[in-house]
């Protein structure tokens, strides 16, 4: 078992351990207390793991209520969010009670935002069940829902009381969804470089211990950045590598292209831009493209520069008169650079394959 402690506006532990789901009731009681546990989960994960979670919560003295929504990014919207808040109210949750997100990034973001805003904030625990949620979305306290204008446009920074990563739950993930998590891991590899990036050359699969180690490495990178800049004033922006173009691609696809694959295409585009602007070594682009190929992740997207630029400008990362991009200089070093709105389309064109 690995325990990683986050010191942000709340101090909490991230447990990484196969089998941790069956002890989750104990862990959550210790970290959050309360009488009622409101489990938030999608229909898919509910069928797989809902009963096991209810059992351990009940055994540890909780009254358990479950809110189940249809799987997928399309549920991460204002309608589901409001319906979840009403559910909390109907179940008479108090501030002492706890919301438990059991699922991938969609569940964590939605349940987290509801936990942050219901009665101005109730206790909250995350049990991530996808690789992406284990390495990224369950850590660091970003919660959000999508609006029609863009991804994650309404949300809050809200740290959980506990995060429980049971890596054995990854065994039921489809290879496609597993791959989405690998895109975020490659993102950490490019930001941090060194051993992590090198170790990814052998794809993240198979042995639980290897997977646990990779998850722990990513979580530590995110923990260190979040401890320094919880509210994304500065260094936390580095974690958005690949996400400026990535979010635009997700939005333009009507969320048919999943987050991980959109981020993969985004990383490739943003690195091409950096090379063509003379900011980044060509070898860095080649290493990234090679890594994406190993994981069968896309290095291109089907959209034109003008559409991507317009989608970027509706995204929340617009600041002042432009968009701040994260550009790699080399593997292990990224920089922030603001591109003025007027230059955006031309710069994005540099990132598209064959342009
Ligand atoms: N808050 C953050 O810091 C942050 C960071 C990265 C991504 N995100 C968000 O995360 C979301 C993407 O997360 P995701 O890829 O986990 O999506 P997701 O939550 O939709 O999960 C993907 C699919 O996997 C299924 N699933 C989940 N766990 C399973 C399991 N153990 N076995 C079998 N099937 C399982 C789900 O039912 C769903 O169909 C996006 O909305 C993105 O914006 C947030
Ligand atoms: Zn992401």
Shape by Cα distribution: globular
The structure class reads: alpha/beta
Overall average pLDDT:
94
Would you report the number of β strands? 12
Q: How large is the radius of gyration?
A: 20 Å
N-to-C series of helices and strands? EEHEHEHEHEHEEEHHHHHHHEEEH
Question: What is bound: which ligands?
Answer: nicotinamide-adenine-dinucleotide, zinc ion
Taking the sheet with the most strands, its summary is:
7 strands, mixed
Q: Helical proportion?
A: 40-55%
Please state how the strands of the largest beta sheet are arranged side by side. Answer: 1-2-9-6-5-3-4
> Beta-strand level of the residues, as a percent range?
15-25%
Number of helices: 13
Low-confidence stretches: none
CA(first)-CA(last) distance: 48 Å
